[in-house]
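dude i think i finally got it to work??
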Amino acid sequence: MNSCLMCGSRVSEFISFGPMPVANGFLTPEEFAQERFFPLNVGLCTTCKMVQLMERVDPGTLFHEGYPYFSSTSRSMSDHFQAFAGLVKVEYMDPADPFVVEIGSNDGIMLQHFAVASIRHLGIEPSTNVARVGMAKGINTVCEFFDQDLARSILDEYGPVDAFLGANVMCHIAELDSVLAGIKLLLKPEGVLIFEDPYLGDIVEKTSYDQMYDEHIFYFSVTSLGHALEKHSLELVDIMPQKVHGGSMRYVVAHRGARPVSPSVTAQCAREDALGLGLVETYERFSRSVEGSRKELMALLHDLKGQGKRVVGYGATSKSTTVTNFCGITEDLVEFISDTTPDKQGRYTPGAHIPVRPYQEFLADYPDYSLLFAWNHAEEIMANEQEFQNAGGKWIVYVPKVQVL
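look at this
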């Protein structure tokens, strides 16, 4: 793909990670031979400044019956979404019979706070296994991909929406134009779209290249998102930087002219200009930084292996697929990856085929070093793993730089 998914202009590729498997495609040895790979290349639209994947994987391949990510496994994320829901209820709900919709509602981690308050709600979650978990909590859920047709059906059955929510999902959607058109159709005159995704400025500043994988089709900046909204007569009216996922931005979107635009939006656009987020040379520097990070991480792992040290990974994340495959990390350097998700345990990581083992195995025999793939939860993890550190264990991180903690 050389044409922008949003405006059709030319996309200039700035980094190639090489052939990459499906990031959440944890598999058994019997499935190794059938594993599918695709080119993970990222580019910048020279017109609307949207950073995006050059190739996309069919969404049905990514979000399915066996999707292995459940948001509620993280205490910090549970707290985050409780606060998110609280903000929406206080600031953006019409007191007369409010209605809220969430796209990519996962296991109901956010909508449960509306359900217990008896607020009309609807979750849209295409992965049936995680949707069932939400349904078991009493979350009203449909298992479909959102588009304009579904928007019309929702409008007919439930009426217009006070708040349409999304968390770490809008950047997954190649057909973003259709989704925005559907959202516009659903919103009340003063209704809002509120969503958050990993923020491009943080990715560039921290060299957090592992945010780039098949599910993340777009890497939003305030500037590029503003261009995408214009054609639908929608506009950004507020932004709220978030610490989650290593640096995210929460966006508040309304019908054009329906709400005042916060000065923070204009100020952030100015900061993006200063960072050079619309310039190809910025991403060329980013690409060089990524290559430098890879060399440093592999040198460290090989050095530890030469010393006879045990290294175990912590967190079989989607992001870890990019790191292990791009860097060439295999089982001879990282013995296994510890993870608390039952659907991943006993399987192997995509591409690199490193064993994923239950968290209890990490506890039973501490390694010398743990490579923290779930670095975006570092504060929570390190607070929970004082025994590992007391036993002499050390952490390896690679964002914002390769170092031992």
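The chain has two domains: 1-52+307-405, 71-278.
im so relieved honestly
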